[in-house]
User: What shape does this take?
Amino acid sequence: MSKVAVLIDGGHLRVLAKNANLTYDPDFIEKVALACVEPDETLLRALYYDCAPYVGKVKLPVSGNEQEFKGSDGWLRQLEAKNLFAVRRGVLKFRGFKPKKVPIASAALSDADFKPDFEQKGVDMRIGLDIANFSAMKSVDRIILITGDTDCIPAMKHARISGLQIVLATVPTHRVAPELLWHSDFERRVAWPAP
Assistant: This one.
């Protein structure tokens, strides 16, 4: 039996689930993680990387009125309470507003013509650090990775050089960057879990 760790880039999985019109919650995430593990493998741990929703007040771009963003990280706490799960939190930064349509209309603009621009920080670094730790400690034989981010490639290369196998888990109808496949040992197609 091969010992495995499943590493999930939450931002990536959320977009895929949304495009497939699936409900994205802790139970869904757990089902996806477990679906990645084959019968001849033993799950050591599932690591989930994401950010809590942004909380704060900002000024709207046209009117200057204040808008408050409220969110709860309760769903992340539910996920980290599940068996064999750990959550690695990055930070969501507010980067201002950007136009909903480009080019910007020549008519008078309103706040409704803009949407908030958020940037996730620290998630890729945490994925890379965990891959490096698994490589150094040799606590698993394989890392099963759900991501679409090519920033993970240096960590993937490091793991393979260290003797670990990298399995890139992909879902139906989604094509990943070929660079991610080049630096994986296997691609594993994983069906969406039943609701």
Residues 2-54+70-91+121-189 form a domain with the Rossmann fold fold (CATH 3.40.50.1010). The chain has six helices and ten strands. The CA atoms of residues 169 and 180 lie 11 Å apart.
